[in-house]
Amino acid sequence: MYDFVLRGTLVLPDRTVQGGWIAVSGEKIAAIGEGVPPAASVFRDVGDALVLPGFVDGQTHATSYKGLPGFAATSRSALAGGITTMVDMPYDNPDPLNTVDRFDLKVAAVNEHSSCDVALYATIAPGQGTAEMARLAAKGAVAFKISSMESHPVRFPRLPANDMFDILEASVETGLPVGLHNEDQEIVRGMIARFKSQNRITPEWHEPSRPVVAEMAATANFLELGAATGAHVHIVHISHPRGYDLVSRYREEGVRATAELCVHYLHFDAARDIGRLGARMKVSPPIRPGVLDDLWHRLDEGKVDFISTDHSSWPIDNKYTPSIFDAGAGIPGLETLAPSFYTDLKAKGRAPERIMAEYLSEKPARFFGLWPQKGALTIGADADMAVMTPGSYRFDASRTFDGLNWSPYDGETFDARVTMTVLRGNIVWDGKDVLAQPGAGRFIARLPDAKPVV
């Protein structure tokens, strides 16, 4: 007898199976089949609902506001959104994850506070040197993250080009990708100073204050450093189609380059939405006007490596400032990732379930070296599943589990919702309540035999 059997429409790596079942022993998928399901201690039949591999969010900022205890609320929100594994960024409050000691502290915090599984980025501070990188990789870090734009002088600093070069050289031996927050600091700061002097401080000035050229200049510089070092250079968010073309061009030349797309860039339009949302849609790089169709086209062309949330744990009060340049950048996104992407895919005439399984599960799991443990419904994998039930529903941000209870998506109507989440064989979200307790989640290290994606 199996411990748990789930029956529904299975989204498997090579096909979709209506009336299929997945059997779980312990924490692993033990069997997959069709027809009469086998006996189990716990059985659930979700009818025609989609059973997808648990989502892997490749860009979460769980600890940037409340520090390491921020895993508690953020992970509950992840489970309510079908996300069974978060890949958390290293810009913790008050100190970044740039040493082995801080890595150990963060792993302990995951095991104490998190309700979902967590993989970890690490970083290197300006002037720190690269000696710690191999040790952080040995601890199980899945990637390094650096920035060309300062958000905070200690927690989220700018790395000068010589430091970037050294970090990329050292990263080759570790086998880990190095991600970049890609904005040119001098251009952005110059534009902000100009707009402030002209009293242009309302929300519509955020996007032009961080122009496309600032994003492309930082991206191109990083790609050239990657070409010179042989490192895997990854752009963690690109807001404009030209960026995906740029990465693709370098990749065709043999550079180990990849590009990530945050789901809000596929949904919002600066010209259309800034009037109603204001600072609530402030992210950096900013949401652009008039590029939605072209971004979808880049996704269709295969120029996007995976899709993430860039979930930010800022309270709404952080957005209420007289000047848009003082408002915090970032939005919550864990509970809207799957419903938003599903709805937009359906509206574009795509098959949502196949693309979601690929871009929200398999591709990020492979990228971060977690596959085949994570990212697919296959025998031997962790029994992580997200059940999506088609049907119209109105998203109410006041009922989210992230402790923030605001969202630029508030009041939108989606075409499907996550009605069950299974983490390693246990039902942790039943469509109404998060059933997992803090500590149910685990730190997930990059697998030692993980193969690079480029």
Keywords:
DHOase/Allantoinase_Hydrolase, 30% helix, TIM Barrel, single chain, Amidohydro-rel, 454 residues
Description of the structure:
This protein has 12 helices and 16 strands. With 454 residues, the chain is of the alpha/beta class. It has a 9-stranded parallel beta sheet. Helix 4 links the parallel strand 8 and strand 9. Helix 3 crosses helix 4, helix 7 (212-229) packs parallel to helix 8 and helix 11 (337-347) packs across helix 12 (352-367). The longest helix is centred in the middle third of the chain and has 18 residues, at 212-229. 54% of the residues are buried.
Layout of strands and helices, then pairs:
Blueprint: E1 2-11, E2 16-25, E3 28-34, E4 40-53, E5 55-61, H1 71-80, E6 83-88, H2 100-113, E7 117-122, H3 131-139, E8 143-147, H4 161-174, E9 178-181, H5 185-197, H6 206-209, H7 212-229, E10 233-235, H8 241-252, E11 257-262, H9 270-277, H10 292-300, E12 306-308, E13 311-312, H11 337-347, H12 352-367, E14 385-394, E15 413-423, E16 426-429
Parallel strand pairs: 1-4, 5-6, 5-13, 6-7, 7-8, 8-9, 9-10, 10-11, 11-12
Antiparallel strand pairs: 1-2, 2-3, 4-14, 14-15, 15-16
A few lines on this structure:
One of its GO terms (cellular component) is cytoplasm. Helix content is 30%, strand content 24%.
